[in-house]
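Please study the protein below:
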Amino acid sequence: MCGIAGWIGPVERRDAVRRMHEAMRHRGPDGDGLWFSDDETVGLAHRRLAILAPGPQAGQPMASGGHRIVFNGEIYNHAALRAGMERDRHGMEADESPAAGRRRPRRPVLLMAPTFGNERGGIQEFTREIVRALKAGDGLANVVALSYNGTPPDENGFAEWTDCGTSTLRGATFFFQALRLCIKWRPRVILSTFPGFAPVGVACAKFFGIPFATVAHGIEVWKRMSAEKRTTLCVADRVLAVSNFTAERLIQVNGVPPDRIRIFPNTVDSDKFFPGPKPGGLAKSLGIPAGVPVLLTVARLDVGECYKGVERVWDAMLTRAEGPLAAAVHVVAGSGSDLERLRAEALRRGLGDRVRFSGPVSGAELAALYRLADAFVMPSTKEGFGIVFLEAMASGIPVVAADAGGSPDALLDGKLGWLADPDSVESLADSIEDALAGDPADPRRNPEFLRSSVVSHFGRDSFRARLEAELRELAG
């Protein structure tokens, strides 16, 4: 908060006021002021921390005629006072712009996230989609962003963007920054893209009377959480679960009341992922002969994420001695701490000539990989939702997933793809063969049907409409 000091006494005490002013330097980074009366018997000092009105008109000591004043704090009923003074025809001047040339939004959304940068991961991509949706709606000038880490966003059009740096005290910094932003901006809604921030969000919500909502993705809420996080999730105004399975786990394991949960699925960039001819150059660079069926898995290959099912696909491939699955090549796209072990395991199983590791891919290269594939296969048993399923179907290729976790939501419970029994290698093998060479009339093998269905249910327009509806309902 601001720092104030004053002295009434003889002229020789002028230096004391200056020393007090210097000692308060840490209290206010946004300005400072000193004033002495003509006879130098009164001195006032101020160090300023600007929250509501950062412009120069709010600097202190304030003057009106022969009067001077310093005070600690901001006038939080300033809007009502201003309206009354204007009604009584008193002139008013104020600088309401937090940045030159831009008027501060009255009631923005406070968006809290682990990061706003380009880091990989489902939560990170979900955060970027939330930002895009907010930008397409009221615009980022109506969004105040708080990031847990120090990676800045590519496009910073926010009313304010704040990060917590790399300090070991980031947790405390995050909390106090959230308090500061709530005081300064009085947001209409606090939205977190990560449930771990619920304790901070709920504290701010209760203290300032602001609705709080958080997104719950998958494995981070499937297990019993700490008492603090469970309690705050249970009293959050809204928990947006990306899948029905995540919602069930929130209720059954963490005791979140069902009436506080809404299903809020992921979205996909249908302009980036679309059907097209197989990229022959890419097939050649991966050493895949023409006419050979291509299976694709896109996943993070970390030791702690073996549930993605890469080796399960190999189990299925080894069950067939003939047919399309027996001839298929499996392209594994991604990187991580388990990559070298997987390379060795493929060789050990005798699949060295049928498995290709492409390494990490993104952008146009990832879109081309989807078009190269004849089927996308990822029998993950612990997927919160699975954005990669949407990317594959938007690209027009058949999809095989495990009937487990949040994967069925992405495939509309099997209407858009095959859901294999997670405990049966034979079921997985049958599903892959159906996807590769099953009934030609099956709509799940029709690129146009897959794309139109994904855009209709999970496209960015639908995502934005769901978000705007939730924000409207929360803000009342």
Summary: The chain has three domains: 3-87, 109-267+461-475, 280-458. Residues 88-105 have pLDDT under 50 and may be disordered.
